[in-house]
Amino acid sequence: MSHFELLNPGFLTTYQDLGRPDMLKFALAHCGAMDETSLRLANLLLNNSEGAAALETTAMGLTVKALDKALIAVTGADLGLELNGKSAPMWTVLQLEVGDVVRFKGKKKGLRSYLAVAGGFDAPVILGSRSVYLRGGMGTALKKGDLIRSLPLENQAPRAGRSLADEFQPTLDLTLPIRVLPGPQFDYFTRNGQETFTKSVYSISSISDRQGCRTEGPTIERNRGPDIITDPIPLGSIQVPGNGLPIILLKDAQVTGGYAKIGLVARVDLDRVGQLSPGDKIRFKLIRREEALDLLKNQVQLLVKARQTLGDVSRA
């Protein structure tokens, strides 16, 4: 096991794994890493289970000191990773010696990075997951002075310096449109409102969080609602409340709601939405279900290829 001291928690740092999707039927939020693919790839680099808990850190500031030798990998957003004050590579297995300091200097591209450790982080298991769910009172954000540790290795330790080829790294091109499927209440909106949704540019609001991305921009005209009889909220649902501005609901969102849903983010683009920062500009592009499934299939095949390239020693 490896131990670390948290010198600075940064803007927000929590333990996250793949969440609690099996608990949705009990009205509990999905939870888990906002950029799930980056979490999986960090764990693959370290020969961990893909769902091992990592540190999800937001924007900047996280600083940890190694109290033992350790192997780590950092994926996701480029938040200016440094090792002992010098720039360090992401998507690479890094060897830490006793006293080494890892720091995220500041946001360059994207919003959330994942710091994984060989063995995975030892965080409390609550309802089958180590993911912190702040709104639900499950775990807490990390704070200055916390002592954290890894679990014992599950598999053979990876070699330091092993890296992931560019072709397997998720795109962080946040200028590309967010691909969406028509929502279950798409017909609650006028033709003009539907065109506003797909042809306008929106900004991510400063009051966005892990529950959802609020937007600022043109209001969407409706012919019914906005209230509906409460129904399920799939991950990535785009609600339009009374103010006419879309909200993309994410990992910590409620599982039912009473606002009409104009769209549903294609699964392949959910990770990218999880990397959006306040002020980022986004556009929505409607696609067909068949296209969404093909895109997801391609993403899964790329992940399978990454497993094979890295030796396929971790458990999916």
Describe the structure.
The model has no long low-confidence stretch (mean pLDDT 95). With 316 residues, the protein is an alpha+beta fold. Helix content is 14%, strand content 30%. The chain is built from four helices and 21 strands. The strands form four sheets. It has an eight-stranded mixed β-sheet with strand order 20-13-14-17-16-19-12-21. A six-stranded antiparallel β-sheet has the order 7-6-9-4-1-11, with no helix packed on it. The two termini are 22 Å apart. The longest helix has 21 residues, at 289-309. It folds into two domains: 3-166, no CATH class; 178-297, Cyclophilin-like (Cyclophilin, Beta Barrel), CATH 2.40.100.
Mean pLDDT: 95
**What is the total tally of β strands?**
21
Proportion in helices? 10-25%
Figure out the total of helices: 4
Classify the secondary structure makeup into a structural class: alpha+beta
Reading the helices and strands in chain order gives: EEHEEEEEEEEEEHEEEEEEEHEEH
**Beta-strand share of residues:** 25-35%
Radius of gyration: 20 Å
Biggest sheet character: 8 strands, mixed
Number of domains: 2
Low-confidence stretches: none
Principal-axes shape call: elongated
- Cα separation of the termini: 22 Å
Write the layout of secondary structure elements.
Blueprint: E1 3-9, E2 12-16, H1 36-45, E3 54-58, E4 62-66, E5 70-78, E6 81-83, E7 86-87, E8 94-96, E9 101-104, E10 109-117, E11 147-149, E12 178-182, H2 191-199, E13 202-204, E14 212-216, E15 227-232, E16 237-239, E17 247-249, E18 256-259, E19 261-265, H3 270-273, E20 281-282, E21 284-286, H4 289-309
Parallel strand pairs: 12-21
Antiparallel strand pairs: 1-4, 1-11, 2-3, 3-10, 4-9, 5-8, 5-10, 6-7, 6-9, 12-19, 13-14, 13-20, 14-17, 15-18, 16-17, 16-19
